Amino acid sequence: GGQLPSTPSLSVHPVVPQGQCVTLQCHSHCRFGMFRLYKVTGALIPELHSIMLQESFLAGPVTPAHAGTYRCRGSYLGSSSVWSPPSDPLLIVVTGVYRKPSLSAQPGPLVKSEGNMTLHCRSEIQFGSFVLHSEELSKAPWHLPGQPHREGSHANFIMGPVTAAHAGTYRCFGFLNHSFYEWSTPSDLLDIMITGENVLLPSSLGYRQEHDTLSCCSESNFDVYHLPRDGQLRGHQLAEGQRHDGASWAHFLLGPAKPALGGTYICHGSFDSSPCEWSGPSDPLYLSVTGEESHNLLCAQ
């Protein structure tokens, strides 16, 4: 048969967790009546090598066998011997094939603007490569070779000088070099925030026991105040800034004193125009809960 001049395009969400279904879509401006989908690399899957009468095809539940590179061709109904050129290749990565690695930040998840940051991905498995993925950055995932580490492997993703664009949510994966398309379960999400050097710091953080609240105030009119505990950014409390006489503040309701509230608190401020760029920290406030559960006392130090 001959070949039609128009080339279709193939699209899909390229990173698919094992066990989920995925829809592959073949697009064309030529109103083709049927499409053929095939794999270029990886294991052959007979169900994906049939002629389709629609632009989309649902595959799954996804297994490692679905990982690989795909292309599609289009043709008109009644002309099954004449097909278009193949689409550009599309890579499908299947995750969840191995146990998840861990992801941590040095010197910590709060990084000064223009400073340096290292995201450390580590696994007990001897991965040949690691991948760092940012939920916010539009860049392609960052690949680094795995280095031996005790009985496992690790990789250090070094960034800097950092800007507000580096703030966001990160996760990492590992894979073996002979199975590039089969990745581990993602690490737990890691939130990174950037603190500005030229922003006024919150001036104080205090606890009011009669109202079970922590209060943060500043001479800068912050729109939002943030209250991490023990350096953990994920799930931290937020409060809208209140303004009066050139100052601003926020109150964080903690609820009745209980052991789970104990820890070291700091607060930061931010503006709506740059929500991922925080001020520097307030002085830390340590709260300890003592006494019987029905007579807990929350003490600020």
From TrEMBL:
Occurrences of domain Ig-like (ranges): 89-172
Stored Gene3D superfamilies: Immunoglobulins (2.60.40.10)
SMART domains: IG
Domain of life: Eukaryota
PROSITE patterns: IG_LIKE
SUPFAM superfamilies xrefs: Immunoglobulin
Disulfide bond found in the keyword field: yes
Family matches, as InterPro entries: Ig-like_dom, Ig-like_dom_sf, Ig-like_fold, Ig-like_Receptors_ImmuneReg, Ig_sub, Immunoglobulin_dom
Keyword rRNA-binding: no
Keywords from the UniProt entry: Disulfide bond, Immunoglobulin domain
Protein name (record): Ig-like domain-containing protein
Species assigned in the record: Felis catus
